[in-house]
Amino acid sequence: MGGLSWWHWVIILGVFVILFGAKKLPDAARGVGRSLRILKSEVSAMSDDVASKNVDGETPAAAPAAAVSAPVVTVPATPVEQRI
Which runs of E-coded beta strand occur in 16-56? Predict the structure, then answer.
């Protein structure tokens, strides 16, 4: 009780493979990885922005609210196989 043993994980993995298919799971994992990389870069950009404001002598609370524009990130499209 209280935790998942190894056979619980095997059953959960089997359910995912049955529901989504073995072909779609790597594509889904790739998409999650890309999303995490974008999130990581955005968080580091925000922390760099705050650090540069602190170096200038301004406190983040005293700085006026400015519109933040997110950098444009292009993600190459993966080809999708079409089955007929």
Answer: none
First to last CA, the chain: 47
Rounded to two decimals, what is the model's pTM? 0.43
Expressed as residue numbers, the domain containing 30 is 21-53
36 belongs to a structural domain:
yes
Decide: 73 and 38 in contact? Cβ < 8 Å: yes
Put residue 4 in one of left, alpha, beta given phi > 0 → left and psi -120 to 50 → alpha. beta
The amino acid that residue 6 corresponds to is: W
Residue 13 lies in a domain: no
How far, in Å, are 13, 38, 41, 50, 81 from residue 72 at the CA level? Answer: 35, 10, 12, 20, 27
pLDDT tens-digit map of 37-59: 999 999 999 988 887 777 665 55
